[in-house]
Amino acid sequence: MKRMRIVHVVLALNVGGLECMLIDICRKQALKANVSLIVVNDSYDRGLLNCVKNDVPCVLIKRPPGSRNPWHLLRLLRALLRLDPDIIHLHQLSLISLIRLLPFPRITTVHLALREPQPPVVAREYLCGISGAVGETIKRVYPRAVCAIVANGVDFSRIAARNKSPDGPFNLLQVSRLDHSVKGQDLLLRAIAVLRDRYAKDNLTVTFVGRGSSLEYLQSLARELGVARQCLYMGEKPREWLYQNISSYDLLVQPSRQEGFGLAIVEAMAARVPVLVSDLAAPMEIIQAGRFGYYFSCGSADDCADRIQQALSEIRKPSYASRLEAAYAYAQSHFDVARTVDRYFEEYKNVLKTYKARSRRRVRI
């Protein structure tokens, strides 16, 4: 039986939720199909490329970010024509306009909630949202597009399970790029100060994993609030490091002001680590509105502190283990990357059926 030829196209491939999930998808798809990966911009992490190079051919266009030089577009188009895919899978809406004239079926995953149309999208363009929340924004912004929902997933088999001693300081973890206006790390710092002042809690630490433009601001804010000694900034870490170490923390806190999904939330649930999220639609989908995790009012450091205090009083009790197992079971059944891969194969088939139907209509005309 002929193997499907799939080409994923992404603007950049640095360490982040989108990119790490894409690598996992490529590796899993390569077991059943011929998969290639094209990175458009000259912005990529060698470690991520090395994760797939033996199974997935990678083409680096090396376009300087923002460049309008047509040579890079020509290289992209030539690479796609040479690979002759059955389907092209794009991972940014802006890529649609670059390949619009190529005669290949395509699907585009939308990784962020949309607020207004970005590039123009033709009627019946096939778009996938990574959560129901993102899907709703696709339907509102692009009502003439075809919208499917394919939830992100992680490889549960690679994540070490939590086996934490109840003794010692309470260790919080925050994983995302350091961009406080979007990811809300400043709220967590303020919550730590509230815990000290309101609950006399100063025996906890918070570890930030990620890099970004807000590092100096967050360090300065921590000093101003008097919580600097409780904060550790680890910088960017490989996914394997996270998968082996996330289990050593007591609580993952994701205080985002904007979020399309929240891969680290699922990774914590896979490690049987409790989670606290802001009450945005996408994270609330993952934790089922509080059934499988804690949540606080988005933007409120006070409420974040109260929920951390609640977690402090509950999660080290022996009886809490059953709640973590329930969260693990739910996450595995809904957000394992194998399920994500199967869902994408289903949507690829839907796209190909639609494409063939349109081609027959054009022939009749």
Description:
There is one protein chain. This protein has 14 helices and 13 strands. With 365 residues, the protein is α/β, with parallel strands linked by helices. The protein has two domains: 5-153 and 336-364, Glycogen Phosphorylase B (Rossmann fold, 3-Layer(aba) Sandwich), CATH 3.40.50.2000; 157-335, Glycogen Phosphorylase B (Rossmann fold, 3-Layer(aba) Sandwich), CATH 3.40.50. The strands form two sheets. A seven-stranded parallel β-sheet has the order 3-2-1-4-5-6-7, with helices on both faces. Strand 9 (204-209), helix 8 and strand 10 (231-235) form a beta-alpha-beta unit. Helix 1 (17-29) runs parallel beside helix 2, helix 7 (185-199) packs parallel to helix 8 (215-225) and helix 7 crosses helix 12. It is elongated, with a radius of gyration of 22 Å.
